[in-house]
Specification:
alpha/beta; 5-stranded mixed beta barrel; 31% strand
Length: 172
């Protein structure tokens, strides 16, 4: 198990390989279908800094934050997967979720030294690793708002790194 603390440096991202088991600590963002397209729009319009969001070296966990806890959602949903290339370009180093990603997404992540980690779907374990949380943007989306979490020992497995993946599905 490799312990990684955010923000993640380019060298740390480059050194992670397919199948690495990592334990994340530090601040991570969360987002899914409602928040991620809005986050991409902020990035593309040059308004991330004005919104108080710095994505350099960060992690985005594909989930909602509810009173019941957090658990990964499918990263290959259109609104989520289509956000990955732009958010990788913006500086996100690890995208966390579940499911297979397309070859196009894997290649975009390779170009920006960004990785994809799968998270075990165990809500109780993940929730116990959150030490702080707040809404970072889009509060109108409720539990699907962009949240900033402080985590300690958040587990994941690197499932896509440097153009390689555990599994790739071709988009029809």
């Amino acid at each position: 198990m490799k312990s990684i603390t955010t923000p993640i440096s380019e060298d740390t991202a480059r050194d992670l390989v397919l199948g690495d088991q990592i334990s994340l600590s530090g601040y991570i963002y969360t987002g899914r279908d409602a928040a991620l397209p809005k986050l991409v729009a902020l990035y593309e319009s040059g308004k991330l800094e004005k919104a108080g969001i710095d994505l350099k070296g960060t992690v985005i966990f594909h989930t909602a934050v509810s009173p019941a806890g957090v658990g990964p959602t499918s990263s290959n949903k259109f609104d989520i997967e289509s956000s990955i290339p732009a958010l990788s370009e913006a500086g996100v180093k690890i995208h966390l979720g579940k499911g297979r990603l397309s070859e196009t997404t894997i290649e975009a992540m390779r170009e920006h030294n960004s990785l994809y980690g799968i998270v075990p779907p165990v809500t109780a374990l993940l929730s116990s690793r959150i030490t702080e949380k707040r809404v970072a943007a889009f509060p109108e989306e409720g539990m699907e708002a962009l949240h900033l979490l402080r985590v300690d020992g958040f587990p994941c497995i690197i499932a896509a790194a440097h153009g390689q993946t555990i599994g790739v599905s071709k988009k029809e």
